[in-house]
Design brief:
heterodimer, A: 117 residues, alpha/beta, 6 strands, B: 240 residues, Rossmann fold, Arc Repressor Mutant, subunit A, five-stranded parallel sheet, two-stranded antiparallel sheet, disordered C terminus
């Protein structure tokens, strides 16, 4: 089982479920799975051991204005995707990678990250 | 989701064709393309729900009424909020409206319930919860916390002490007047109504005048205010 170790920051349960669905049903890689190792829904109380978790991916949700903080403890190999406030765009993992948030673009992003990790 | 009780919402039984076929079709309304596309894919895969259309704007939702969706899944973040439910009920009276993304407080749930939803999916729901709730609501049920159920019962008891929301004279409306009343409530101007029904502007104004008279109302928006329980908004009679 190929697991994408993921930390969600301010991502609603429904949105997390939709992202998980994309990984498990649309990505053309056998038995890929989104493994959520931490789910942060309170920006004032971040788990103290996040820096040790070294996730493959951090997804910053639409109300998670915490990009700088996430980058501070993200490992060298950790990719960060940011969803815009109105869920119209997805940014990352590269600094200039900004696209409309659609099933296809997110599928491609996650597929690329799975291949690279 | 802290569902501790089930309410029978009395949803139209005709919606349930069989255990394996929940709805004929559905319409998903949300400004967020990712939500629409994802929900279409998941509901079609997991619930045998035949999604017939999706709409990002009110105009697209109106255009979708021709497909007569049995169920409308409405994103609560859609512009207009709960008012959209009243408008949808007027233009799609056969559809059951499910609001998704509701902040599950008494205040919010009651507001959406009074607007006319058949059920709701709270903003804390997972995909699995959403699928389960859509199926429940299709059976005329709604899981919700006991405090919400209590509030709904108290509100129903309070409403029972008030007058019916429409006077008896509304039953005297002709079929055409009823049709026009739904469009008035949906926010159509007289010009839009005339174009939609392919009748003259003068005929439209005459129908509007007559139906307001029968309902003992002065302004076209009084109809919508009456539908929502007596709150009035000032818009002139001549919506042309």
């Amino acid at each position: 089982m190929r697991e994408l170790r993921t930390v969600l920051v301010m991502v609603s349960p429904l949105l997390a479920g939709l992202i998980r669905y994309i990984v498990e049903s649309r990505i053309k890689q056998p038995r890929a799975r989104l493994s959520i190792i931490a789910d942060i829904d309170d920006l004032e109380h971040w788990p103290p051991d996040l820096g040790d978790m070294q996730p493959d991916l951090i997804i910053l949700g639409p109300s998670g204005n915490a990009a700088q903080r996430a980058a501070a403890w993200a490992g060298v190999d950790t990719r960060v995707l940011t969803l815009s406030a109105n869920l119209s765009r997805v940014s990352g993992p590269g600094p200039d990678e900004v696209d409309p948030l659609t099933l296809d673009t997110l599928t491609q992003r996650l597929s690329d990250i799975l291949q690279e990790t | 989701m802290s569902a501790v009780g089930t309410i029978n919402t009395g949803l139209a039984e005709g919606l349930v064709a069989s255990d394996s076929k929940l709805f004929k079709n559905a319409l998903i309304i949300s400004e967020v393309r990712f939500l629409r596309d994802s929900l279409v894919a998941i509901l079609q895969r997991e619930t045998s729900l035949g999604v017939c259309a999706q709409a990002a704007t009110w105009e697209q939702a109106l255009a979708a009424q021709a497909s007569q969706p049995a169920v409308v899944l409405l994103d609560v973040a859609f512009p207009g909020g709960a008012k959209t439910v009243a408008q949808l009920r007027c233009v799609m009276p056969q559809s059951s409206i499910i609001a998704f993304g509701i902040h599950e407080t008494e205040e919010h749930v009651l507001a959406w319930a009074e607007a006319g939803i058949a059920g709701y999916v709270p903003n804390t729901a997972s995909v699995e919860d959403l699928i389960s709730l859509v199926e429940q609501i299709s059976r005329g049920e709604q899981s919700c916390p006991s405090r919400i159920a209590g509030s709904l019962l108290r509100r129903i008891a309070s409403a029972a002490r008030r007058a019916p929301f429409l006077p008896e004279s509304s039953s005297a409306l002709t079929r055409r007047e009823s049709e026009i009343m739904r469009l008035v409530i949906a926010g159509y101007s007289n010009k839009d109504i005339a174009r939609q029904l392919r009748i003259s502007l003068g005929t439209t104004k005459s129908h509007v005048h007559n139906l307001l008279g029968k309902l003992s109302l002065r302004r076209r928006t009084d109809v919508m205010a009456r539908m929502r329980g007596g709150r009035h908004e000032g818009i002139d009679l001549d919506g042309s």
